Amino acid sequence: MAEVKVINGNMAAAIGARLCRPDIIAAYPITPQTPIVEYLADFVTGGLLDSSVSEVESELSAMSVVTGASLAGSRVFTATASQGLSLMYEPYFRASTLRLPVVMAVANREMISPQTLWGGPQDSLTVRDAGWLQIYVEDNQEILDTLIMAYRIAEDKNVLLPINVCFDGFYLSHMSERVEIPEQAQVDDFLPKYVPEHIILDPSRPMAVDPLTNGYLLTEYRLKHMLAQQNALKLLESLDGEFKERFGRNYGGAVEEYLCEDADYILVTMGSMTGVSKDCVDAAREAGKKIGLLKIRMVRPFPSDRVAAVLKGRKAYGVIDRNVSFGWNTGIIYEEICASMNRAGQFVPNIPFIAGLGGEDITAAHIDYAIDEIINHAADAVKNATVWLNREDKGKEDTK
After folding, report:
1. What span, in angstroms and rounded, lies between the C-alpha atoms of 224 and 232?
2. Angle, alpha carbons 122-165-366 (nearest 5°)
3. CA 224, 225, 229: angle at the middle one, nearest 5?
4. Which end of the chain is more exposed for a tag (fewer CB within 10 A), N or C?
């Protein structure tokens, strides 16, 4: 029977990792990620987890340690945030192109400068094209459950890629919620022991790792890498149903559709803002506004077909980003959705919103304003300027 606790997001991540029995854990402390590995170290010293914890001098070293350990056949785990993620970029890229199933939690935090410690997914979204899989979650229960699913995805023989489980710093990492913790036996039954076959450092079976590669071979590597990402997308969709059968919870796969079936308008969100957004959609429905919500979970690979299918034929949609896409004057997820709609040969009037930068609250008032903007400007939402919801003149469009 599942144990129920009120825990913060970092503890949920640590317990999720513990249940997956990693052999090697390596990380360097950085706010707001630090408690994850502290909790895991406590589990090891307390006899709850049989793992080796490597205390390193930097995030670059942490990623290097788990890369080497994964090459040697170990199941590994690490965690980071913000500047720590940027510092480990070189081995971060290498872990994906070596096709190593590293699982890493990212407690999302804004990048500098100006100096800020607060939450926002700009850190992991900035490295979204480094070949990792990326899933973004809404609440602490989803953190724990997604970490368990992450190992199944990363270690699948048709995938073999590293994966990020990303959650909003402070809003989830340090906030406490009710979380159901499955029994160890349940997880063991769901997640088989990792037995690598594609690459392993073994003196009795010598092989070249990362040799100098010419253009033809590199093309083959990149093609197979991208095909593996698409395999991961398919696996997440099917795994969501299996997880529900075993644990009683599911999250929609790569996206979650909330009251979308008969909606004329769609609000697109990602991460912890989704909870209050669902409440606002419920209230709007009661007021006669036919609005639905599409939550983005998987960003890499991007579920373009599902997104386009949900948005097709609507009167309008709006995307709230907690990040910026420098050069586009919009948010990153908005641009991903525009690309998806273009690829599908579809156009639906739309409005880009940006809110919550630097850890600023995204309130029900912001969401309500966005819903009304989507509905009221559906007819002329063809090329709208970005609406910056957290400015003092809330909602004013800005093209400067």
Report:
1. 12
2. 50
3. 115
4. C
**Close Cβ partners of 219 (under 8 Å, ≥ 6 residues apart):** none
Picking from 161, 128, 323, the residue whose alpha carbon sits closest to that of residue 232 is 161
**Length of the chain in residues, anyone?**
400
Full DSSP string of 149-201:
HHHHHHHSTTT---EEEEEETTTTTS-EEEEEE--HHHHHHHSPPP---S---
Contact indicator for 15, 144 with CB cutoff of 8 Å? yes
Structure tokens at 272: 């912890």
Q: Which two tokens stand for residue 79?
A: 């965690």
Q: Which two tokens stand for residue 312?
A: 């097709």
State yes or no: pLDDT of 175 exceeds 60.
yes
Work out the burial of residue 169: count CB atoms within 10 Å of its CB; fewer than 13 is exposed, 13-18 middle, 19 or more buried. Answer: buried
Question: d(Cα 44, Cα 33) in Å, to the nearest integer?
Answer: 18
What stretches of the chain show up as alpha helix (H) in DSSP?
A: 9-19, 34-45, 59-71, 82-87, 89-97, 122-126, 140-155, 184-190, 215-247, 273-286, 304-311, 332-343, 364-376
- State whether residue 272 is helix, strand or coil: coil
pLDDT at 393 (0 to 100): 56
Would residue 224 be called left, alpha or beta, if left means φ above 0 and alpha means ψ between -120 and 50 degrees? Answer: alpha
Judged against a pLDDT cut of 90, whether residue 54 lies above it is answered with: yes
Residue 53's H or E segment, with its range, is strand 52-55
What six digits make up the tokens of 255? Answer: 């996206």
What is the set of domains in the chain, with CATH numbers? Answer: 3-247 (3.40.50.970), 255-388 (3.40.50.920)
Task: Please state, in angstroms and rounded to a whole number, the distance separating the CA atoms of residues 249 and 228.
Answer: 26
Amino acid of residue 179: V
In the structure encoding, which two tokens stand for residue 11, read together? 């503890």
Q: Which two tokens stand for residue 29?
A: 């402390």
Mean predicted lDDT score pLDDT of the chain:
95
Its pTM surpasses 0.85: yes
Tokens describing residue 189? 């039954």
Structure-token match 């989704």, residue found: 274
How far is residue 258 from each of residues 94, 253, 290, 314, measured CA to CA in Å? 37, 13, 12, 15
φ and ψ at 95, to 5 degrees? -60, -40
* 3-state SS class at 358: helix
